[in-house]
């Protein structure tokens, strides 16, 4: 099986796939089983890869495989809420919002924490920023280490929750239980002797 990341691999970050890439994937599927795995939910993956995404690929793993489809059918789901429980989740979200409120960066927009079924996506600038603001924040973050510093604080504070933090893309980082990263989807791929994964980057 050939397994592809979405953002930064099949598409530019948060952009729609090009017709050339779609054709390449169709051609590839004629010779090998093809799957896609993204950190985003199915709605966002569909915006990027097309409304028929779950039919267009043999496997589609949204939220790193916590929402899994094979041959167009849902084969598994798991949720952060049921795993952590409401109290621990609230404790984490409250602390994170306080931290963000006290964080001094050049600009802030909206949607600082996005709650997905299998993870939290935390963005110091806010996910509602424009592409130009994304690019500026990425440059600022490379110099000032805003995300890495925040991850370091959260990792220490919430050590007891056994969480993983993944800095990727331009403006945010993901928070999820240990083992719930892109390798999570592998539990659905036991039938394959060879798995070739294609992705752009994961810093941590």
TrEMBL record:
CDD domains, A to Z: HAD_PMM (cd02585)
Annotated positions binding alpha-D-mannose 1-phosphate: 14, 116, 127, 134, 172, 174
Reactions this protein catalyses: alpha-D-mannose 1-phosphate = D-mannose 6-phosphate
Cofactor(s) named in the record: Mg(2+)
Chain residues that bind Mg(2+): 5, 7, 200
EC number: 5.4.2.8
Pathway participation: Nucleotide-sugar biosynthesis; GDP-alpha-D-mannose biosynthesis; alpha-D-mannose 1-phosphate from D-fructose 6-phosphate: step 2/2
PANTHER family reported in the protein's UniProt record: PHOSPHOMANNOMUTASE
Family to which the UniProt record says this protein belongs: Belongs to the eukaryotic PMM family.
Record note on quaternary structure: Homodimer.
Protein name: Phosphomannomutase
Source organism: Genlisea aurea
């Amino acid at each position: 099986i050939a397994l592809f990341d979405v953002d930064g691999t099949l598409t530019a970050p948060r952009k729609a796939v090009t017709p050339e890439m779609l054709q390449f994937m169709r051609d590839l599927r004629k010779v090998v089983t093809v799957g896609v795995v993204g950190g985003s939910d199915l709605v966002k993956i569909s915006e990027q890869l097309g409304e028929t995404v779950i039919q267009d690929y043999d496997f589609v793993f949204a939220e790193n495989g916590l929402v899994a489809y094979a041959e167009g059918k849902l084969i598994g789901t798991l949720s952060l809420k049921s795993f952590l429980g409401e109290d621990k989740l609230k404790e984490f979200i409250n602390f994170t919002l306080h931290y963000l409120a006290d964080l001094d960066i050049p600009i802030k927009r909206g949607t600082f924490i996005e709650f997905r079924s299998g993870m939290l996506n935390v963005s110091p600038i806010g996910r509602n920023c424009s592409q130009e603001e994304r690019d500026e924040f990425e440059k600022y973050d490379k110099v000032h280490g805003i995300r890495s510093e925040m991850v370091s604080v959260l990792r220490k504070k919430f050590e007891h929750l056994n969480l993983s933090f993944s800095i990727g893309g331009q403006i945010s980082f993901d928070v999820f239980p240990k083992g719930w990263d892109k390798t999570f989807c592998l539990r659905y791929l036991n039938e394959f002797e060879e798995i070739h994964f294609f992705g752009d980057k994961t810093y941590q």
